[in-house]
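Lab notebook page, bench 4
Experiment: in silico fold of construct C2
Operator: M.H.
Input chain length: 183 residues
Purpose: comparison with the prior construct
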Amino acid sequence: MTNQRTMQTNPAVSHEYYVQTYGGGKTIIDGVKQLPLKTWLTEDGDFGEILRLTEQGEMAEFPGFKPRQINRSQLLPNTVKAWHFHFNQDEVWYVPAGTQLLVGLWDIRANSSTKDQTQRIVLGGAAPSLLYIPKGVAHGAANFSGQPVALFYFVSQQFNPDQPDENRVPWNALPDFWQPERD
């Protein structure tokens, strides 16, 4: 389908306008997977599954991933929690419907096919999903809403405060990354 533009625009804004893109063409970091979740609407509310476990204790949605701990974090309004990464731990993130976070991913793995690439994903909102983040991919989140947002994350290793696999990079190591896109 072609986009026919027959209307003339004001010359003062002609050089200012652009067409927003929807999906496709965005960087996808190797190993990162996003799985949309189904929600069933009912007359008295809704129902949605977050995950299923196989009899072997793996997440059915991500074969090979066995959650060893489930955590909850809360991001206050207008905050950024970034960057951190793990040498030994994979994660799956979930943000409940009705709230949303901007998730940032940065591939800092030396031998990755997407080394140094970044990716921005919105979690939650009207289309909840699970986000698989492999070890070695730095990640964080920003809350641009006016309300606290809960982030639930399933991890493949139990947290050990004596030997934490929690490695940090300054939140502003990528200038302007955490600035919201404005239209």
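Observations: Residues 104 and 120 are 5 Å apart (CA to CA). The helical segments are 11-14.
Next step: discuss at group meeting.
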